[in-house]
């Protein structure tokens, strides 16, 4: 995506947010995204130098909270389990302390937090939830290898007999390497 496309998407998203919450501006402050489903309360607390812009960015992002917003949508009469937005304006110098304060307040109020840290941008930032590892090219290759190993194990176990063409050291090493690649348990090998 180029910068024009990003700006156009953000502009459209700002209009959507303004139509639901006309009082949200691009001032600095804290925003809380909260929703309730089956009597379970969920919340995400964030800080922004430009509130409207930051909230709009969540609609085009791919982090955990962004995906949750896309999945559950915004609160409305037709969507009672969607996210509501609450903003608390504050000076930029207070963003870290205010974010930490509201994270604690939401936790005390019984919200399951969607934040990964206890807030703040500076040193001493404390992780409060597990980070999901980024999925990259190598992760995809590794997953593909694992999938093919499982499938081959299933096929061998249910349909094939593995045997050596010749009884010699090379054949035995090749068979051993084959089993190592598949990482089949010894008990399974004995049954084949």
CATH class value of the largest domain = Alpha Beta
What is the CATH superfamily label of the largest domain? GIY-YIG endonuclease
Q: How many independent structural domains?
A: 2
Task: Please write the string of helix (H) and strand (E) elements.
Answer: HEEHHEHEHHH
Helix percent band: 40-55%
User: What Rg, in angstroms, do the CA atoms define?
Assistant: 26 Å
Shape: elongated
Examine the secondary-structure arrangement and name the CATH architecture of the largest domain.
3-Layer(aba) Sandwich
Q: Mind summarizing the main beta sheet?
A: 4 strands, mixed
Enumerate the spans where pLDDT stays under 50 for 5 or more consecutive residues: 185-192
**Would you count the extended β strands for me?**
4
- Number of helical runs? 7
Task: Produce a short descriptive summary.
The chain is built from 7 helices and 4 strands; from the N terminus they run H-E-E-H-H-E-H-E-H-H-H. It has 192 residues and is α+β, with helices and mostly antiparallel strands. It folds into 2 domains: 3-113, GIY-YIG endonuclease, CATH 3.40.1440.10; 137-191, no CATH class.
Structural commentary:
With 192 residues, the protein is an alpha+beta fold. The chain folds into two domains: 3-113, GIY-YIG endonuclease (3-Layer(aba) Sandwich), CATH 3.40.1440; 137-191, no CATH class. Helix content is 48%, strand content 14%. The chain contains seven helices and four strands, in the order αββααβαβααα. It has helices at 3-20, 51-58, 64-72, 95-108, 137-159, 169-182, 186-191, and strands at 29-37, 40-48, 84-89, 112-113. The chain has a four-stranded mixed beta sheet with strand order 3-1-2-4. Strand 1 and strand 2 (40-48) form a beta hairpin. Helix 1 crosses helix 2 (51-58). The chain is elongated.
